[in-house]
Each structure stands twice: as C-alpha cells, then as structure tokens.
Design a protein that fits this description.
The chain has 133 residues and is an all-alpha fold.
C-alpha cells in the first residue's frame, strides 16, 4: 500500500493558514514574531521542508533541529502541544483526511524529536525549568 500523496499546490496554502494561526496565537505568536524576521523566506523554507518530507523532492537543505534549538530558552515543551493542535486543525480543514493524518503523524514525530533534543539534559538541552543540562 502506498502513502497518500500531498498535492504540492496545496502546501503553500496549508503553511500560510497554519502560520497565520500561529502568529495570532497568544502563546506562540510573540515568540515567532521575535524569531522570524522574514516571513516570506520562512514560509519558502518550510515549503521546501514539507515538500522534501512528503514528496521526497530533496528541496530542503537545512537542519531544523539546530535552528529550533537556538530558541529553546523561549520555547516550553507545552508549546509544542499548542503548535500540534494548530497543525492538526489546519491540515484537517485543508487536506484530504489520509494526507492530513500522515502530515499530523510526521509533525508529532518532529515535535517529539525537537523536545528530546532541546530538553533532555543528556543531549545538552535545557531542563524544563530552563537550567542547562
């Protein structure tokens, strides 16, 4: 059985709607507003990321773990739950159910990996208290 295919033409819309919600979110919005200087560039990079992840295009050439780890002091583990809630809401509304579910699973794995790298003291991350490990 093959995985459901994401329509590459839907990806910009999904990301635009999702990040509009993130920017308006009382918890996430202020952090993203401080961290993201160029939203067009950020959305283009994320489109490359998701295109590579879902369509194996190879367009993304970066390290999301390293970029997000730079901001670990501002991001709490609970914020990932909010991020995932908004992602689930957006993908459910805009994509076929099978594609939405696959993207939600991938996003949850990414969030788990980021939390692990950012907050596990054995990996040099921060304790949830904000103390470096």
């Amino acid at each position: 059985m093959t995985s459901p295919a994401l329509d590459p033409n839907k990806l910009p819309e999904v990301l635009a709607v999702f990040y509009q919600r993130v920017r308006q979110d009382p918890e996430l919005g202020p952090i993203f507003s401080r961290v993201i200087e160029d939203w067009d560039e950020h959305l283009a990079r994320l489109e490359d990321f998701w295109s590579s992840l879902m369509l194996t295009t190879g367009r993304y050439k970066g390290n999301p773990l390293a970029l997000d780890a730079l901001h670990a002091h501002e991001i709490t583990p609970v914020m990932f739950d909010r991020w995932l809630h908004l992602w689930t809401q957006t993908t459910t509304e805009l994509l076929p159910v099978e594609v939405a579910q696959l993207m939600q699973i991938k996003a949850a794995r990414i969030a788990d990996r980021l939390k692990y790298v950012m907050y596990e003291p054995t990996h040099g991350g921060l304790h949830p208290s904000g103390i470096s490990g």
